[in-house]
Amino acid sequence: MPAPVAKSQPQKLVFTMNSLRNTTLSTDDDSMHYEIVTRYWHPNITKINKFDMETRELLTVAEIEGLQTKEPRVRFGGDKGQWMSAAEFLRYDPENTGGTFKAAEDTEYRWKTHKGRFQLIKSDDPEKKALAEFHPHERHFFVFRMSKHAYFHLQPLPEITQAIDKFIVSYLLVERRRRDSGIKVKLQSH
């Protein structure tokens, strides 16, 4: 009798900080390790670097110019890539804080919110099954140090791991838009 096939468990990609411009995303075993950094000498460019375990070096996989502005630009592939506007890469949902992007020519993903948390789904999936789900950080008594860091639960699918660079960039863009939307108050005179 053959041995039972073990199902792969979802991977937990943990944020070290709550900043969108300076943080690290990594798994427990460091099989995936990404550094998101904005240097003080280039305050307008946020780089997403991947730690290559074989060569032990950081490789720039994507850059976002003007993450904190209204019209950021993105580029994949380091210095060799071409800049494109964030609107070309990610189509924002006008009614919600999410958006859609293409990871490959035939695969489109959508960020949606479910119970106030971002979820990544395939745009054409009728079941709307989450491929990645964001879990926000928690604090001791809501004000002290973080008791639990923010993290993503990633389903163990090859299509997600192949598109992880675009996944991270798209998350940074939709999360910046969500944080900037905030609470808007309209004052009216009586």
Written account of the structure:
The protein has 190 residues and is mainly beta. The chain has helices spanning 86-89, 158-162, 164-181, and strands at residues 11-15, 23-26, 33-38, 45-52, 57-65, 73-76, 84-85, 90-92, 99-102, 108-114, 117-122, 132-135, 138-139, 146-148, 151-154. It has a 13-stranded antiparallel beta sheet with strand order 7-6-5-4-3-2-1-15-12-11-10-9-8. Strands 13-14 form a two-stranded antiparallel ribbon. A hairpin with a 6-residue loop joins strand 3 (33-38) and strand 4. The longest helix has 18 residues, at 164-181. The radius of gyration is 18 Å and the shape is globular. The mean pLDDT is 80.
Oligomeric assembly: single chain
Radius of gyration: 18 Å
Quote the distance from N terminus to C terminus.
Answer: 80 Å
Spatial strand arrangement across the major sheet:
7-6-5-4-3-2-1-15-12-11-10-9-8
Mean pLDDT: 80
**Approximate helicity band:** 10-25%
**Helix/sheet category:** mainly beta
Order of helices and strands: EEEEEEEHEEEEEEEEHH
Total number of beta strands: 15
Major sheet characteristics? 13 strands, antiparallel
Tally of DSSP helical segments: 3
Beta fraction of the residues? 35-45%
Unreliable residue runs: none
Q: Given the C-alpha coordinates, what overall shape results?
A: globular
